[in-house]
Design goal:
Elements lengths: L1 H12 L46 E5 L6 H17 L3 E5 L6 H8 L7 E5 L1 H6 L13 E17 L7 H7 L5 E5 L2 H14 L3 E5 L3 H9 L5 E5 H9 L3 E6 L25 E9 L4 H16 L1 H11 L2 E6 H23 L11 E2 L2 E4 L11 E4 L17 H16 L6
Parallel strand pairs: 1-2, 1-3, 5-6, 5-7
Antiparallel strand pairs: 3-9, 4-7, 4-8, 4-9, 4-10, 11-12, 12-13
Length: 416
């Protein structure tokens, strides 16, 4: 019941409710550099790459905002196996889970800008979480070294599902909404893009645990899941689950006969979450250039790419620091448009302007118009407080927006 309530609140708050789709909705694909494949003759190291004098000064700390043993952690450790010999110093992974991986990124921001600390950054930490969490950093607070991998997504069903392909699912939604599970705020954005592109009537249900979402899917308690390749691919390989459609730019290697939604003609119905690396802003440009060269060399190495897929099933790629920063900025802007649609704001930001006892406040740019500020109880029974200057104003609409803010702030993202 609680799980369903959260899903309903999220669905109500999104600009395009999951129970329908406006034909005027805008949906832009996640940007992808023109060539993401490694050159055939790329080698793991460039003999001409020379470290700046005095660098590195001992072991390098690698900050990861996810728990040890998860897909992102294993991806980082696999990358470090190839990067460490090139740098000539040990790379020590420090796991700092919390806040949807933003705790580690905040720690990276506060680290000394000497190249001795490198952090894992993703679409979630850089582009989406700033709209749901009060973060001390922005995209501009880092120097980006590049990206080496990506989580890809798909719509999945149990092996015995009546939906044999995406067309079957789409046809079923014409009669009644079909429930789809998801486990992160990125998935919610992707679900919105799918609805906008396909006009499928999807009822999203939030799960705080990927393992719970998989269990319910296998048990028939929910008919469809929007899942990532690292978590779901083994169930596809074993024959327990089937892929209806890839929701990223590429087909899943474990289901190469199943096309992407974009291949089916649904432009914009794609998203991936990239694994990027960054250092604090202000790091010596010579160090940034040196590390960027090495990151790209490892990411382009076919041996590393094979190893990454073997360990994590993640898609390998080789993006420069400029390319991954551009992706973060475009998705950040796309997320801003979602919030504008939801709130009807000229300023895309919904700001928590302060705290008063057990209440949060929102400024006068919101849908309650003339109200200078409205206090909303953080408890289960949320309602407009007595400080609403003109009575009820548009409190029902305000609560839809607040529920989105409040719910997203509670989401623990186990992976990007």
């Amino acid at each position: 019941m609680k799980k369903s309530l959260i899903a309903i609140l999220l669905a109500l708050a999104m600009a395009l409710p999951m129970t329908g789709c406006s034909s005027s909705a805008k949906s832009t694909p996640t940007p992808v550099p023109a060539d993401t494949s490694a050159p055939a003759d790329t080698t793991p190291a460039d003999e001409g790459t020379t470290a700046p004098e005095g660098y590195p000064d001992g072991p390098i700390s690698m900050l990861v905002g996810y728990t040890a043993g998860g897909g992102s952690d294993l991806a980082m450790r696999t990358f470090d196996e190839f990067l460490s010999p090139l740098i000539g110093e040990p790379l020590t992974v420090s796991n700092l889970p919390g806040g949807g991986a933003t705790v580690a990124v905040a720690q990276l921001q506060n680290s000394k800008a000497d190249g001795q600390t490198i952090g894992l950054v993703t679409l979630s930490t850089q582009s989406v979480s700033p709209y749901s969490l009060d973060l001390p950093y922005t995209i501009e607070d880092f120097e980006y070294l590049g990206a080496f991998g990506a989580y890809t997504y798909a719509l999945l069903v149990p092996a015995d599902s009546p939906y044999q392909d995406f067309d079957d699912l789409l046809e079923a939604t014409k009669s009644a909404p079909v429930q789809v599970s998801y486990t992160s705020n990125l998935h919610e954005m992707l679900a919105r893009k799918i609805v906008a592109a396909t006009e499928a009537d999807l009822d999203t249900v939030y799960y705080s645990s990927t393992s719970d979402a998989i269990t319910d899917l296998l048990g028939g308690f929910i008919p469809v899941a929007l899942g990532d390749i690292a978590s779901y691919s083994s169930y596809v390989t074993s024959g327990q689950l089937r892929v209806l459609a890839s929701c990223s730019d590429d087909r899943w290697p474990v289901a190469e006969d199943v096309p992407t939604l974009v291949e089916m003609g649904y432009e914009g119905a794609a998203m991936s979450s990239y694994l990027g690396l960054a250092v604090p802003k202000g790091t010596d440009p010579a160090i940034v250039s040196y590390l960027s060269d090495l990151v790209y060399q490892v990411a382009s190495d076919p041996t590393f790419q094979d190893r990454l897929f073997e360990v994590t099933k993640l898609q390998s790629l080789a993006y420069t620091g400029e390319e991954i920063k551009a992706i973060f900025e475009q998705v950040y802007d796309e997320a801003a448009e979602i919030w504008k649609d939801v709130a009807g704001l000229t300023d895309a930001r919904i700001i928590r302007m302060g705290e008063k006892d057990n209440f949060w406040t929102m400024g006068d740019t919101g849908p309650c118009g003339p109200c200078s500020e409205i206090y909303i109880d953080q408890g289960e029974d949320m309602s407009c407080g007595p400080d609403c200057g003109i009575g009820k104003c548009d409190c029902d609409r305000f609560l839809e927006i607040w529920n989105l803010v409040f719910t997203l702030s509670l989401i623990h993202i186990s992976e990007p």
